[in-house]
Design goal:
Blueprint: E1 2-5, E2 8-10, E3 15-20, E4 36-42, H1 50-57, E5 69-74, H2 80-99, H3 112-132
Antiparallel strand pairs: 1-2, 3-4, 4-5
Amino acid sequence: MIELAPGVAVADEEIEINAIRAQGAGGQNVNKVSNAVHLRFDLGASSLDVELREALLALHDQRISKDGVIVIKAQRFRSLEKNRDDALQRLRELVARGLLRRAPRIATRPSRSAQRKRVDEKSRRGQIKAARAPVRRDD
């Protein structure tokens, strides 16, 4: 079992981790050794509860495909084990974001005095701008 968050764990078989060749600098070694990690986690086939699954899909994260598969590519380190841990950590952070619940917004209205101040300031600014206009002469 892999623990993704406190109280949230999935079986090892649900997370597919493949070693791939990393991109970028690395000299001759980059073409020979598979150090990067490709992590795939299918939300639809996972044992996560429905509420968390829907919350993760609602995140609209670029790492979540339209089919509900989380794809994380980790190639930050030169070690396969470190990249594997990095990919799992990034999956944990994504799940933690899905667990967060935002407080519902409570609609508020400005007070009467605040509305009055706003209108007074608008009329005052209008008077200032009107005073800037050139004086018209009716000859």
